[in-house]
UniProtKB/TrEMBL annotation:
It comes from Halothiobacillus neapolitanus (strain ATCC 23641 / DSM 15147 / CIP 104769 / NCIMB 8539 / c2) (Thiobacillus neapolitanus). Its EC number is 4.1.99.3. The record marks 316, 369, 392 as: Electron transfer via tryptophanyl radical. Residues 1-141 form the Photolyase/cryptochrome alpha/beta domain. InterPro entries: Crypto/Photolyase_FAD-like_sf (IPR036134), Crypto/Photolyase_N_sf (IPR036155), Cryptochr/Photolyase_FAD-bd (IPR005101), Cryptochrome/DNA_photolyase_1 (IPR002081), DNA_photolyase_1_CS_C (IPR018394), DNA_photolyase_N (IPR006050), Rossmann-like_a/b/a_fold (IPR014729). It catalyses: cyclobutadipyrimidine (in DNA) = 2 pyrimidine residues (in DNA). It comes from the Bacteria. This is Deoxyribodipyrimidine photo-lyase.
């Protein structure tokens, strides 16, 4: 039997159920053809056809380029070859089936609503042509349809959801990594990775190379670097400077390491993932990733609509200048600017920083969370539609298990608490580096002398705040109050 293994968000060889299934059924008699198909969609096509998976943003494309390169090397070291094609996935698969005489196609499932719709359509079309098609869970501990409340309904709140996941079991098997794979016919054509043109035309990505090593080996070395810190995770995860967290999100998003592998490794080396506190908390955060996928599966409309129906007609501000200042890290609120510049330069932002900038955009600036979510999708290396949607809807107060509408993060207090010595702000907003700590978090409160001594002229070397935090907080409370008095509860 010749089997096509279709790689998408699972760019690894270890714990790869689809690849394992191909190996189990007849690797010795036939070929295994590892394939990556790059969808040739332009961003503008997305609105035209909602069944097409989201176009990947620039930072994620950078990651994918290097991750594919790593996967191709790993396959080559097993005697195989990654076949790369570009175009409409069903047509490309049909072409490959014709060229290789394959009779089976396997893949690991994706959870983005548009991707699921595409997979369902492709599965039906190939089966109708007599091809065996099988899909597997390669990216989650438990898939969304397996976890329900006592009434058989989906959860909307994280804590009971996570309890149900833990009850379903975290001691899960993983699939072995192959040492050897059958060869791929020499005559089978493949594009070169460079031909996909995933890297930026203008070299804005220089800094990325200092921060990231995409691919399966990079994922494991990141995980190993994090392991000595895991016992401190529960506290250290809050420091904005980001040294206490794993930075595994992009590796997980591209499937270079699976959550099952992480949990398996912790169980094998530490005996439990429910204690001590650091490990329990870290694994629970993996649970938030699962919960994002769970919500996207059960409430697919929420990728671009509020889960809480009362927000459907919410009057967000149309304020393109404010949005641009936020995107560029020029709001005049140091912690917001530090976080947004960190995002631009490294493609990553700390979770608390994500909440701070999202709260500032949706509450202080009253700008639609979808504008922020779209910017994140374009600039994050870990841009992940389910996690991003859940994060934005949570912060905006429009989603499941959302932050209460009156919780408006005060960026000054947040910075004082989670960046007390100002390292994070000074790192990313160097024009404030010489300002004393007592003014660093709110430079507009500094005296003329203090500003002059630090070489700062507000409005010239660093912006005046684009929003008065007190006034805009009050405005948000009034707006959100009206919503809460509306009729339909979520
Ligand atoms: C507004 C907003 C947007 C977000 N957008 C994304 C996104 O596009 N992609 C993405 O992967 N995460 C997103 N998150 C979640 C979270 O911020 C990142 O997963 C986390 O900061 C990644 O850093 P880390 O790998 O060091 O996390 P760690 O703290 O080391 O956590 C380990 C892993 O758990 C998962 N995780 C942790 N926290 C969350 C969370 N709150 N929600 C979902 N998964 C979580 C991630 O896979 C992460 O790699 C968003 C959060 C917010 C508030």
């Amino acid at each position: 039997m010749t089997t096509i293994v279709w790689f998408r968000q699972d760019l690894r060889l270890g714990d790869h159920p689809a690849l394992d299934a191909a190996i189990q059924t007849g690797a010795d008699q036939g070929h295994i053809i590892p394939v990556y198909i790059h969808p040739g969609y332009a961003p503008s096509d997305q609105t035209a056809d909602a069944t097409k998976p989201l176009y990947e943003g620039a930072a994620a494309r950078w990651w994918r380029h290097h991750s594919l390169r790593s996967l191709a090397e790993r396959l080559a070291s097993c005697g195989s070859r990654l076949i790369i094609r570009q175009g409409e996935p069903l047509a490309e698969l049909q072409r490959l089936i014709h060229e290789t005489k394959a009779n089976r196609v396997v893949w690991n499932r994706r959870m983005e609503p548009a991707a699921r719709a595409e997979d369902t359509r492709i599965k039906a079309a190939l089966r109708a042509e007599g091809i065996n098609v099988d899909s597997f869970n390669g990216n989650y501990l438990h898939e969304p349809w397996t976890i329900q409340n006592k009434q058989g309904k989906p959860f909307k709140v994280f804590t009971p959801y996570w309890k149900a996941v833990v009850a379903a079991g975290l001691d899960l098997p993983t699939y072995p990594e192959p040492d050897n794979l059958p060869t791929v016919p020499r005559a089978l054509n493949s594009l070169a990775i460079d031909e996909l043109e995933l890297l930026p035309a203008i070299a804005w990505d220089k800094d990325f190379y200092n921060h990231w090593q995409p691919g399966e080996p990079g994922a494991w070395s990141r995980f190993e670097d994090f392991l000595p810190l895991i016992d401190e995770y529960a506290e250290a995860r809050n420091h904005l400077i980001g040294t206490g967290v794993s930075k595994l999100s992009a590796h997980l998003h591209f499937g270079e390491i699976s959550p099952r592998q992480i949990v398996r490794y912790l169980l094998d080396t530490r005996g439990s993932v429910l204690e001590p506190r650091g490990i329990e908390h870290f694994v629970r955060e993996l649970g938030w990733r699962e919960f994002g996928a769970y919500l996207a599966y059960h409430y697919p409309q929420t990728v671009d609509a509020p889960l809480d129906a009362r927000f459907l007609n919410f009057k967000w501000r149309d304020a393109p200048d404010d949005l641009r200042a936020w995107q560029r890290g020029q709001t005049g609120i140091p912690v917001v600017d530090a976080a947004m510049r960190c995002l631009w330069q490294t493609g990553w932002m700390h979770n608390r920083a994500r909440m701070i900038v999202a709260s500032f955009l949706t509450k202080n600036l009253l700008i639609d969370w979808r504008c922020g979510a779209a910017w994140f999708m374009d600039t994050l290396v870990d841009a992940d539609e389910p996690s991003n949607t859940a994060g934005w809807q949570w912060t905006a107060g429009t989603g499941a298990d959302a932050a209460p509408y009156f919780r408006i993060f005060n960026p000054v207090l947040q910075a004082e608490k989670f960046d007390p010595d100002g390292t994070f702000i000074r790192r990313w907003v160097p024009e404030l580096a010489r300002l004393e700590n007592k003014y660093l978090f709110a430079p507009w409160t500094a005296s003329e002398t203090a500003l002059a001594q630090a070489g700062i002229v507000l409005g010239k070397t660093y912006p005046e705040p684009i929003s008065d935090l007190k006034v805009s907080r009050q405005r948000a409370l009034v707006h959100f109050d009206q919503i809460k008095q509306n009729t339909t509860a979520p």
